Amino acid sequence: MPSQGRKRVGGTVAAERNPGMAVVVRNVPKGHNWGWHAREDQRMHLQSVDEQHDYKVWLEKDGERIFEPAGVIPPKVAKVLREYVGEHRLFVEDRWVRFMMDKGWIHLHIALPKLTLVAYPNMPAKFVREVDLTTWFDRRQLDSLRPEIIQLNREMAALRIWADRPEDDTYDARLSRLLWGKELSGR
């Protein structure tokens, strides 16, 4: 019988995913895994989660994208991680958005035709993004909107408009771009 915290997969025993830790970036550089823990700073970052290293990199400050080591990280490690994050930033941010949603760190306020996203409410890192839907949709589309059909969608890490329609007829705006990008006028 497998030990507690493990499950049988095929003929082998595999460790179950640690619910207190998310591994987001594996083996970058070789031997380094990056992610975050369940009880975390309310600010996007990656930190060593491989139990062999103790590094952290901030990925946002005051609601803006950054790449800032917290403490000393060997230059070879920082360079490879910086390049990886540069190429895969949206993937990392989408994972962080889902984490924010799970923690209740993102709120949506609706006052049509405007929406307000509040990141890290009631916390020192709080920042706000306003979305004016008149820049996204025409008058006919705006007239069809009601607050109950606008929501945050965890699966897509998105702001979903027309959530009452079939999936292929909704409008999803990626939250990572709305929060940290400069794209407040559309997808």
What does it look like?
The chain has 3 helices and 13 strands. With 187 residues, it is α+β, with helices and mostly antiparallel strands. The chain folds into 2 domains: 6-103, no CATH class; 106-180. It has a 5-stranded antiparallel sheet with strand order 3-4-5-6-7, with helices on one face. A 3-stranded antiparallel sheet has the order 8-9-10. It has a 3-stranded antiparallel sheet with strand order 11-12-13. The longest helix has 29 residues, at 75-103. Mean pLDDT is 87; it is low at 1-18 and 183-187.
Number of helices: 3
Helix fraction, binned, reads 10-25%
Quantity of strands, as a count: 13
Average pLDDT, all residues: 87
Q: Strand percentage, roughly?
A: 25-35%
Structural class label: alpha+beta
Distance between the termini: 50 Å
Specify the overall morphology. Answer: elongated
Order of strands across the main sheet:
3-4-5-6-7
The largest β sheet comes out as: 5 strands, antiparallel
Give the topology.
Blueprint: E1 6-9, E2 12-15, E3 21-25, E4 34-37, E5 45-48, E6 56-61, E7 64-69, H1 75-103, E8 106-111, E9 114-119, E10 127-132, H2 139-143, E11 150-153, E12 158-161, E13 171-174, H3 175-180
